[in-house]
Design brief:
alpha+beta, Nuclear Transport Factor 2, Chain: A, 4 helices
């Protein structure tokens, strides 16, 4: 009987832990990284945004192409800013940290403004960050889809 109660208690504890959101396991690193990313994007600062990516990053902007390397990622974002993109948000669906690797799936929104007309966009982003020897977290892979 005692064994049954211990097993039942262990199962209950496991269920309680499993029910906790995975997002809480990353020690606020994702929150901080997403806040910094949004801030740089919304200021239109391609340099600051580029610095958040690994030198060998692979990024796919959802159009069937890939962009590799920090410099080309920075050019890509500069083009978006020149086209009037701002007001970016990130709403994490799920995130997890395994050692020096973090992956997240999130919903995103942004607005493009041209000639006084605002067009909202939204989509889903998958991002992988790794912690470098310098202690900084940088995006090493990212892909997303988009819909107006």
């Amino acid at each position: 009987m005692n064994k049954s109660f211990r097993l039942l208690g262990a199962c209950g504890l496991f269920a309680l832990v499993a029910a906790q959101p995975v997002f809480a396991q990353h020690d606020k690193v994702i929150d901080e990284a997403n806040a910094a990313w949004n801030a740089a994007f919304n200021k239109g600062d391609a340099g600051a945004l580029g610095a958040m990516y690994d030198e060998k990053v692979v990024l796919s902007p959802g159009n069937g192409t890939t962009i590799t390397g920090r410099a080309d990622v920075e050019k890509f974002y500069k083009g978006l800013f020149d086209a009037g993109f701002r007001d970016h948000t990130i709403d994490v669906v799920r995130a997890n940290r395994v050692g020096n690797l973090i992956y997240q799936t999130a919903n995103w929104t942004a607005v493009a403004e041209k000639d006084g007309k605002k067009t909202p966009y939204k989509g889903v982003v998958l991002k992988v960050l790794t912690k470098g020897a310098d202690g900084k977290w940088r995006t090493t892979a990212q892909t997303w889809n988009a819909a107006p």
